[in-house]
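User: I'm curious whether this sequence folds into something compact or stays loose and floppy. Could you predict its structure so I can see for myself?
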Amino acid sequence: MSIDSLPPSGQGPAPDAPAPGSAPTDQNAADQDAASKERTRRIFICYPRSTLEEVAEFHKILKQRLDVRGRSYDVFRDLGDNKQERINPGDYWRDILQAKLDSSICCIVVLVPGIFESEECAKEIEYFQSRIKQDKRRFFFPVEFLEVKSRIGALAKKKNAIALAMKDIHHYDFIGGAFEPNRKIYEKKVDDIADAIHQRVDAFDGESPPMQLLGDATEVSPTPSPPAPIPWPYIGAAAIAAVLAGVLAWNFLGGKSTDRDVAGPEPPPAIVAGPPLDVAFEPALPVKLLSEPKVGASAAETLDCETIKAGVCNVVAIRAVQANGTDWYQFELTGGAKRYVAKDRLPVWQELEANADLVKQVQVRKKPTTDAAYVRALAPDSLIASRKFGPHKTGSIDKELWYRIAQADFYVFFSERDNVGALARWTPVEGCLQANKSLRARSAVLDGRDLDEFVHGEPLRGKIQSAEVQDQKWVRYPRHDGSYGYLRWSDVEACPRR
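Assistant: Here's the prediction. I'll summarize afterward.
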């Protein structure tokens, strides 16, 4: 049963309400409280494919920690382990997503840079927003797996739908927690998330009428009373509203009807191919092409070229196609063969923000794979100087976020997962700043040595920048040798007006 099956607040008594004119008993109150605890609440996890492995572990621990809180919870994820709370082979997947969102009280949004490029995540978030507008007891719970706070504002200005939805909602800081190697610490961090969600659900269930999203719990039957007249006008209005809601959902989720053909199941969707793309890929790894656009299909070809585009590497044309609800690239090869690779497995490199730089030393590899050996270390503040060799870029490879850094001899790579918090995005500081006490600047934010000495009231010279690094704000200023000096934001103040 969805939330819409209940009357709005103030219209009709809540389940198990005492008869008019009678005083509620302690037993009635206890029964109502027990029934409220028995109702199952569903939580929907919205995430990009690049976080599949991390979210699978998070899902498992979250469900365990919710289950010990005296209430029944279901946690839906499209690729979950529970057959009742996932999309199974043969399911009409858009219908399943709509139904699960309809019956969810909470939508967890996994915040990583890649989510802002996911069309499916944008659809899920937009649809759940429409459900929140109908009932304010539903809520988003954004969880920041990787740092995105610094880029949400800019993305919102570009009208990115996910950034617009998330920019005014407080994010739960799970940065670093998602990759915490200590099992006890990891489970404690997920337990804190489970507790925060549970507390909010409990607060909503204290409202009247209580939400019943997954079906009615077994409740104490009230004393039978004479049958009330059937409110035909209200039933007619409700039926019209249901039809309109169905039409809106049908349009939003791509026009797929939820009706089933009595004669048999709907045939699998055909491959829908777009026009040839004028695109060039720089995969950095050999690309295995499949014989058909289907998970588990046999590998038919391997492209091992620095650049893949039409007219290069035995490729005649590249098209975007959709099959079985999944986006793929189709490669038409010399000789007419058509081969496929899932869209999220082929990196589309995007230029790293010009203000991004390292705040700690990172080990880098010659290939974007954890099997590749480390070839060198990059020092803090080294990205700005090395941009003279070419633009630095970032992209997802095999569902993991990597950074491609230009060097004088070749590209080097490091992953976000292995270097959480290694990058900061520095923004200019307007006006004058001075030291608010006698202190020494540092050579780096993390593990830096002492540098220049400042006395109280001495101003910082040059173009000053600031950034958030591991939940602490820092400023940096240019030094005469081209390096930077660093101070905590708490150690500086605005210069007095003269």
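Summary: The radius of gyration is 28 Å. Residues 363 and 377 are 4 Å apart (CA to CA).
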